[in-house]
Amino acid sequence: MKRVLIIGATSAIACATARKWATKHSEFFLVARDQKKLQLVSADLQSRGAGKVTLHVMDATDIDAHAPMLEASLAALGQIDVVLIAHGTLPDQRACEENTQTALKEFANNGTSVIALLTVIANHMAIQRWGTLAVISSVAGDRGRPSNYLYGAAKAAVTTFCEGLRARLFKVGVHVITIKPGFVATPMTQGLKLPKALVVNADTVATIIVEHIDKKTNVLYVPRFWLLIMTIIRCLPQFIFKKINL
Predict the structure, then answer these.
(1) Which residue ranges make up each domain of the chain?
(2) CB–CB of 5/84 below 8 Å?
(3) Which of 6, 27, 206, 240 could form a disulfide with 16 if both were Cys (CB 3.0 to 4.6 A apart)?
(4) What SS3 class is residue 133?
(5) Above 80 in pLDDT, residue 147?
(6) 3-242 adopts what CATH topology?
(7) Is 132 within 8 Å of 177 (Cβ atoms)?
(8) CA–CA dist 226, 216 (Å, integer)
(9) Which has the minimum average pLDDT: 14-18, 77-81, 192-196?
(10) Is the pTM of the predicted complex or chain greater than 0.70?
(11) Measured between alpha carbons, how far is 76 from 192 in angstroms, rounded to an integer?
């Protein structure tokens, strides 16, 4: 049994991952913006064998709400074995190019808010001296592609932050895993023209995430073939990269 704090608990990947833990009678503190969706997730987890499930409504971009949320989670769970940070949005790149406020809002959704949460939670985990911080980043953060470089920049910031945090917390017994999904069939990607051969469902991603949290993997590409794909993309020289549409 694990005691799990999930931020962005109504996202498809978070829900699928929580279901895996629920079958082992884990207890949950679920955080998201939508109360009704949280209640549906809670009922689903309890039907699958979850123990106590506590719900907390919070917008992750509300930085002042982070510390009270953590305090509430500790009051409910007693201790935290795993934190899964899974919130985010998939912005319209063109809209971000045309409007500064839109760009900054989306960067906050996908980058700044994650870093702020990690800062607060990591300080507690360092005192606790055990547990795992699992953070959903993205393969998009590996290189600034024209089609989504605002989103990619935010995820690159998260990935780099997690790398430093992992080295810091390793010394006190806390593990940080950076999770980099590729194309996943979720409501967030619905309607996008994605190559079918590269798309996986959230349940497949969840199975891999749970396995590698237990293995204490450092950086996880999901599925694994994305490591090869992104290695090739990263190795493309600039004079070629800037001429192609990715």
Answers:
(1) 3-242
(2) yes
(3) 206
(4) strand
(5) yes
(6) Rossmann fold (3.40.50)
(7) yes
(8) 19
(9) 192-196
(10) yes
(11) 39
